[in-house]
Amino acid sequence: MEQITFGKTGLLVSRTSFGCIPIQRISYEESTAILRYAYENGVNMYDTANSYTTSEDRLGTAFHDIRDKVVLCTKSSASTPDGHMETLENSLRKLRTDYVDVYQFHNPGFMPRPGGDDGLYDYLKKAQTQGKVRFIGISAHKLDMAREAVESGLYDVLQFPFSYLSTDDELALTELCRTHNVGILGMKALCGGILTNAKAAFAFLRQYENIVPIWGIQKMSELEEILAYEKNPPTLDHVLQKEIDKDRVELQGSFCRACGYCLPCPANIPIPMAARMTFLMGRSLKEKFMTPEWQTDMRRIDDCTSCGNCITHCPYELNTPELLKLHQADYFKELENA
After folding, report:
1. Residue-level pLDDT at 283
2. How many domains does the chain have?
3. What is the CATH number of the domain that holds 64?
4. Is the pTM of this model over 0.70?
């Protein structure tokens, strides 16, 4: 497994990191087996968050006996120092450790700074002096926030969406991070499952030597695919580039990345899936989305009250109600033609 020095942290990390959102959906036995297999095959970096239900606990279960062999990254969206203290202690307990390697502000609405009235950054510095946090990071979905964080010199790690649908301005962050010696965790490599060509995604991101992509893994077969690419990295040839160009034409722009910040929806609409249903049906087995349960979920779009919650919380500033209506219409048209 190829490794790189992770920015100013000095950590030697695998160029593939393990995203721990999906392991919430499987049994503890399965998640432990997959996590240990990843470690045995060279993956030493794992990203989670306090809000990912049982994810941290599963990491603690899998790695408590080899804690010093893995790099654990977690996040908190708490809005007060006391909130961060509570979530950090909660994370340490679940992870079965007394320190977190990289502790990140989880997509905050502003960039925490030393001396701020919010007290957030000062709390994390205190936690760092106590040995509970080794390095401070920030996850962001907005380009301006990401640039501000990198240029501030306050953060050791930036987590930001990187994929072959990223704009040139977004990809320019890689050079900015290199200049400021900030480690990069690249989330949304497959755009929340919209991109289905993992080989093309892997080859594209491997061009950027300082990006450590986070691959969200739920099945052993998914892990084995990524490990196979690590052993024999695919070249971004004309065949893969053609696939990338096709996806860029279809997807680049106003599409839901399934980040979930729009939730909970007052009308119980499963927005991260419903707002991109047409793409999901066109890129996987459409039958799994034609069940009575999914039909009921898609009809919930009629219950939208236009409260604006999804619009104000969307990092990509999408007109989510409009997207929902468009995908609902296409969904039921597809259903009629099936």
Report:
1. 72
2. 2
3. 3.20.20.100
4. yes
